[in-house]
Amino acid sequence: MIPKFRAKDENCVWHTGLLTFMFGQYAIVNESDENTVYLIDKETVGQYTGLKDQQGVEIFEGDIIKNKRGGIGYIVFLIQEAGYVVVLPKRDYRLGHRNTGESYQLAVDHEVIGNIYENQDLLEVAK
Predict the structure, then answer these.
(1) For 28-87, what is each residue's pLDDT tens digit?
(2) Rounded CA gap, 25 and 47, in Å?
(3) Which residues contact 78 (CB under 8 A, 6 or more apart)?
């Protein structure tokens, strides 16, 4: 599987596809039309986790999720976990891990409710 990324362009529009570096700047190559390239803000880049939430929405690094217990956290990749982690105010846990009872394809106990770039207020509520 080719890694898929998401990032905002200079007009604050989100794009998904292959991450590349061209013209001295990071860019996303459109996943459905490889001839379309968007120069993006590298601070907004997040990789697709390979999982979808309970609604079928793709979960990306930087997404804010709500779990079945009502906890609100955000998704990060942790090297020491060798995978994606849900960071909550007082703890964290591995996303899509066998210990959560979820499959590696569908994170049924989670719902994407925003992202850390546009919805910081959701994380403030969670504290």
Answers:
(1) 998 888 789 999 999 999 999 989 998 999 999 999 999 988 999 999 999 887 889 999
(2) 18
(3) 84, 85
**Tokens coding 33:** 């039309």
Instruction: Say if CB 49 and CB 33 are below 8 A apart.
Output: no
Per the listing, tokens 């993006």 go with 40
Structural domains of the chain, count: 2
pTM for the full predicted model: 0.88
CB count in 10 Å sphere of residue 12: 10
The CATH number assigned to the domain holding 66 equals 2.30.30.290
Task: Please classify residue 33 by burial: count the beta carbons closer than 10 Å to its beta carbon, then call 0-12 exposed, 13-18 middle and 19+ buried.
Answer: exposed
Domain identity same for 56 and 92: yes
